[in-house]
Amino acid sequence: RSKVLHEGIHYLLKDIDKFDWKTFTMGMGCLGILMAMKNIGKAYPKLKWVRAIAPLTVTTLSILITWAGGLDIPIVEDIPKGLPPFTVNRWELGDVDKLVTPIISISIVGFMESIAIAKQLASKHKYEIDSSQELIGLGMSNFIGAMFGAYPITGSFSRSAVNHESGAKSGISAICTALLVGIILLLLTPVFEQMPLATLASIVISGVLGLLDYEEGIFLWHVHKLDFAIWMFSFLGTLFLGAEKGLGISVGLSLLFVLYESAYPHTAVLGKLPGTNVYRNVKQYPTAQTFEQIVIARVDAPIFFANTQHVREKLQKYEWQAENKCDADGRKPIKFMIVDFSPVSSIDTSGIHIMKDLYEDYSSRDVQLCLCNPNITVMQKLVDGGLVKLIGEKYMFVSTYDAVQACLHELEEAELLGGADVEAPAVEEAI
User: Fold this and answer.
1) Which of 110, 149, 330, 350 could crosslink 87 through cysteines, CB 3.0-4.6 Å?
2) Global pTM?
3) pLDDT 10s digits, 128-160
4) First and final CA of the chain: distance in angstroms?
């Protein structure tokens, strides 16, 4: 027996000479009955009870066949009779320091396994999972179980799958299961000692088959290749390294992806949609109009220490590209850099310092930095950090439209004061 695929195949081929056709027939027969009863329950709503009694049916039949036929196949054999003893009086605190590391490891891996199967079942039955409540439930279960010498408790993939395939809809099923297990331990252990191990395996296999979701992999491939790659690495890691390491790989890759997305947020140059006062990404809307001497940009993420350098480089890049285009076309230089802060949900001190550096860089080249539409939290930090005072309150705007209108008005006034003919800054098509 192995928890990983390649070792399981190795042991199977190594011990192929020990193949027992009776055990194989029993297992496949039970699996066939389970799948047939499950499909009948799905196909005919009036017979959905058939699906619920499938595990009990194959268990009863296999025990009767094994007992009546005297089959020489592996069975459960010994089941200790009675309930487990109360063991709180045996607790010892002397070895707690040696147990800290394995306790942390068991807790993390156990929680990951539990929440993974819980979310899978929640997705199938269209309900929500509260991770905090799951953690509290696991903690209480382990604390009470420890009073009776129980193994560490987690949400089981195989037993959850069997519970699901039996038609369970709520936590009441766990209470019923516990009561039945208690009754069996008190009264019926001799009966269940005759259960073939092949029957147990077939019940687990039929339950797990119901959780296979290859359609999700196809969906991920068509929609988001990176999500598909994480899904595939997690799947292969679970197959060849085990469930714990597979989950660890999936969590690690997901965290790396989140860090990458946070460190390199999306930014865009904005333009005005014709006939409206709406400003959108010029790459997404090629007909959006930009204005001479004005660059409008947007940062689509919180600004914090991990992405400040990227944000700074992007905003500088947009301004430099506009300057180079002006030089090439013989147009007037850039005078205003407007940054839309509406998607920025938060900003830390590193972000404020970067914005100050940008302001100083722009000011040295006679470019005015303008900010528009920061939320109340971000605005308070900009005020406390001195950025609003540095930029000037007159260059803080409620919307992108207001910012553009104010900049256009200032450019017209500058031209009037310079003695030039009054000419509105040109509107150009975005490329």
Assistant:
1) 149
2) 0.65
3) 888 888 888 888 888 888 888 888 888 776 677
4) 63
